[in-house]
Structures are given as C-alpha cells and as structure tokens.
Specification:
Blueprint (H helix, E strand, L loop, with lengths): L3 H16 L18 E2 L5 H5 L6 E7 L4 H16 L5 E6 L6 H6 L7 E6 L2 E4 L6 H12 L3 E4 L2 H9 L14 E5 L6 H4 L6 H11 L3 H12 L6 E4 L5 H6 L10 E6 L2 E5 L6 H11 L5 E2 L5 H5 L5 E6 L4 H17 L7 E6 L4 H4 L11 E6 L4 E3 L8 H9 L6 E2 L8 H11 L1 H38 L1
Parallel strand pairs: 1-3, 2-3, 6-8, 7-8, 11-13, 12-13
Antiparallel strand pairs: 2-4, 4-5, 7-9, 9-10, 12-14, 14-15, 15-16
Length: 460
C-alpha cells in the first residue's frame, strides 16, 4: 500500500498540469518569415514585432476556454505557411500571466480580438474572419498602398468599387485620389508595377511632389481601411473635369471619390496628420451599409447613426426610401450632424428586437447614438427620412434610453466553461474521489490501529 506522501507526489503534479496555466517564457526566432502561428508573451513580443523579416502581423488575442477562439485556430494554422513573407500570425493568451500585460495594454474586452500591426501602429482587423477574406487582406497589404490610374473610370474600377466577394466594410464604395500636374510623368519614372522595379517607380512618382508625398504617407498608414489611387500628371482635361478639377489647375488636389456622388476635395493644410484626419472622417459612403464588421467602427465616428431600415427583398420601396436618404445626406440642413447608413431589417431582425420596430412594416428610420445609449424612433410622427430628422431637431420625437440586453451571469459563464472542459473536470473529479477514498481507507486503518492499541492497554 502506497503511503500518503507517495500518493500526493503522484496526484498533485497531475492536478497542477490540469488546473494551472503554465506560464513559460517563450523565445522567438527572428530574421526569417514565420510559417507557423507564433506564441507571443511579454518576453518576446518586442523582438517579434520589430523583426524586419516580419513587418506585418495579425495578432489574435484569445482565451483557451473561448469557443470562437478554438474555431478560428485551425484557420490561422492553415493560413500561416501560405502567408509566410506577407503576413505573420501571432497568438496572445490573455489568461497567461506572461501575456496578460499585452492584453491589458490594448484594453482587450472580448475574445477573439484580432489586431493588425505594421510600422509601429496597431489597429483592429477590418475584415471577415474566414480564410479567403484574411488571405485577400494580407495580399492587399503586401502590395503598394497606392494604385496609378489614368481616368475616372479606372479610379472607380480599381480604387472605389468594392470587391463583391467580400463583406461590406466602412470604406466600401469610397476611394481617395491624388492629382498633381507638376508631378513627374510616367515616362520619367518608368513602368509602375508589383515587382521591385515597378515599386521603385511608384515611389519615385510619389516623391516627385510634396502633395503626393503626403498622400503616399497617409495611404501607407491607412492601407488596411481605405483605398488610394494617384491620377498621373498626363491625364487629359476631359478626365480632370470628371473629377471636378478645372482645366489648367495644376494641383495638388487630394479628394474623396464616390460613384454618383460629387467629389469632396480636401482643402486643409498640406501635411500628413491633417490629411490623415480627413481620410478617417470621410472614409464612409454617403449611405454606408451596416454589417457585423463595421457597426462598431461606424458607431465610433462621433455622430449619431441615421439608419434607413429597409427590406432588402422589396427593391422598389427600398430604392425609393434610400433615394430620400441620399437627398438629405447631400443637401439636408443638418446633414453634418449625422452618419447616414442603411440596414436590412430582415437580416438584422435580432438586433432590431430591442427597438419598437416592426420588421414587417419597412422601410423606417432609426436614429441611434450607441455611445450615449439612446435612440429616436417614432414612425407615427413621420416616416419620411428628412421630415423625421427635422422632427427630432424640433423636439417632436422624444429621445429613448437604450436598455442593453442583460449580460449572462456568473453561473451561466461557469456552466459554459464546464461544458467546454467537461473531460478535464471528469478526470479531476475522478482523481479527487480516488484521493478521498484513499484518505478514508488510510484514516480508517490508522483509527483501527489506535483503537487496538487503546484496547490492549486497557486489558493490561
């Protein structure tokens, strides 16, 4: 029979492995592209992110018990070798004591959170989380940030229009175009392309004027969330007119371009910080379609969302209502106070259940300020887009407080954890039961021996 110390030496290390997260310092190899997902902690994250061989990172902040994190893991593992040299993938376990400071620094609130790192900047990954979308994103980021266009149609096709294969995002349907008639001609810099010589030719073009230098710097910094193109200096007067550039105007002209919407020209100081702010503010369509991957970004724009809630299957009513929204977004007296959006009421029915909106009675308008947890909706006052916003301004529509759905309690969270780790819990319970049985047996034998000793003393 094993002694109590012997059992403890067998059981306790096993319990330690099962119950306690082992925080082991992890080194990381630098100097060559990573073909596997890297484990990042406080000990190695600086070396990883500052490695010239791996300049672009997709960072996954996760917790081991998170179901969505587990589902995403195989996708990232399969992507890593394919994207070696274009995008490195790192995972950061926010329950690990050596990695948690990184999560705290980035204020991680939910799992998994995906962030992109390049050139010293971190920003949220803006796309869908399937392999095709993430690979497309990585390939885009590995290409030059600026495309050269020769006409207005090229600008629409190569810069403005969204790839129909991917989900909607904040900057879909919007592009930023630069023109400087005093910049170098294409024949002066050489053929522009994706190879090393072509990239150097593009760099020479962008360096040939101050305006294009500023444009190129901002394009590089915001490549993940916006699209950029430069109209070469040899563009004809007819093409310049399509952009709203007057004949004879040399530039530089930095502008936002959207199909069927007047060009918005940047008129601020010619420096990268001011133009960067312009791009961030204007990187939205006149009417932005809301989706799961852009709702939070739109909500952070600092203005209430004026949402046209429509039935996407009823194209006649939808188009007529969206035209009302476009007219107000372009010409309404208070258009500067709102971000204008559209939402498919059928697709977003679960979200809309928290508002007094009848999904069978669309279209309608919802004015939502999610940062202040308040909204305006009352289709008995007016369902006309412009009239409703005027009624809000005049106080005819009362503000309502948004009551967020009740969060799952501690017991429910524990239940979820138990479900996901059932096999570990069963093993632990079995070990504990065996341990208790052994203690009971040992204790019983010791007590029996003690009683026998006492009985023998009495007999003597």
């Amino acid at each position: 029979m094993l002694s109590l110390p012997s059992v403890a030496t067998l059981v306790l290390p096993l319990l330690h492995v099962l119950l306690i997260d082992q925080s082991v310092a992890t080194s990381i190899e630098t100097g060559k592209p990573h073909s596997t997902v890297q484990i990042l902690t406080e000990d190695n994250v600086d070396d990883a992110l500052n490695d010239p061989a791996n300049g672009l990172w997709l960072l996954k902040f996760y917790a081991p018990w998170c179901g969505h994190c587990k589902k995403l893991a195989p996708t990232l593992n399969k992507m890593a070798p394919y994207l070696a040299g274009k995008l490195s993938i790192g995972k950061i376990d926010c329950t690990d004591s050596l990695a948690k400071p990184i999560c705290d620094k980035h204020l991680i609130k939910g799992y998994p959170t995906l962030k992109i790192y390049r050139d010293g900047d971190f920003f949220d990954y803006p796309g869908k989380r399937d392999a095709d979308s993430m690979i497309t994103f990585a390939e885009k980021m590995s290409m030059p940030a600026v495309k050269v266009v020769s006409s207005y149609d090229d600008a629409l096709g190569d810069v403005v229009r969204t790839d129909p294969s991917r989900d909607v995002g904040v900057g879909d349907g919007v592009g930023f175009i630069a023109y400087d008639g005093s910049a170098a001609k294409l024949e002066e810099v050489g053929e522009i392309g994706a190879d090393e010589r072509g990239v150097k030719a593009l760099e020479a073009l962008l360096a040939s004027s101050v305006g294009l230098q500023v444009f190129g710097q901002v394009a590089r910094k915001l490549q993940a969330e916006a699209s950029f193109g430069v109209l070469h200096a040899g563009a004809t007067a007819d093409e310049l007119k399509k952009f709203g550039i007057k004949d004879g105007h040399k530039g530089p002209v930095l502008m936002k371009v959207e199909e069927n919407v007047p060009t918005v020209v940047y008129d601020g100081p010619l420096n990268s910080m001011e133009f960067l702010d312009f791009v961030k503010l204007n990187n939205v369509a006149l009417i932005t379609e809301l989706a799961g991957n852009n709702f939070r970004a739109m909500s952070k724009k600092g203005k209430p969302l004026a949402i046209a809630v429509v039935d996407g299957q009823d194209t006649v009513k939808t188009e007529a209502y969206l035209q009302e929204a476009r007219e107000y977004a372009q010409n309404g007296p208070d258009r500067a106070n709102y971000m204008f959006c559209r939402m498919d009421g059928k697709t977003w029915k679960g979200f809309l259940d928290q508002f007094p909106i009848d999904s069978d009675n669309l279209p309608t308008i919802l004015l939502l300020d999610s940062t202040k947890k308040q909204y305006w909706h009352n289709d008995t006052v007016s369902n006309n887009f412009g009239e409703f916003l005027e009624a809000v301004k005049d106080g005819k529509v009362e503000v309502q407080i948004l009551n967020p759905r009740q969060r799952r309690g501690f017991i429910a969270s524990v239940a979820d954890f138990a479900t996901e780790h059932l096999y570990i819990i069963v093993i632990i319970i079995c070990l504990l039961v065996l341990f208790m049985v052994y203690l009971t047996i040992v204790t019983g034998r010791e007590e029996a021996k003690e009683r026998a000793v006492q009985s023998k003393k009495k007999e003597e």
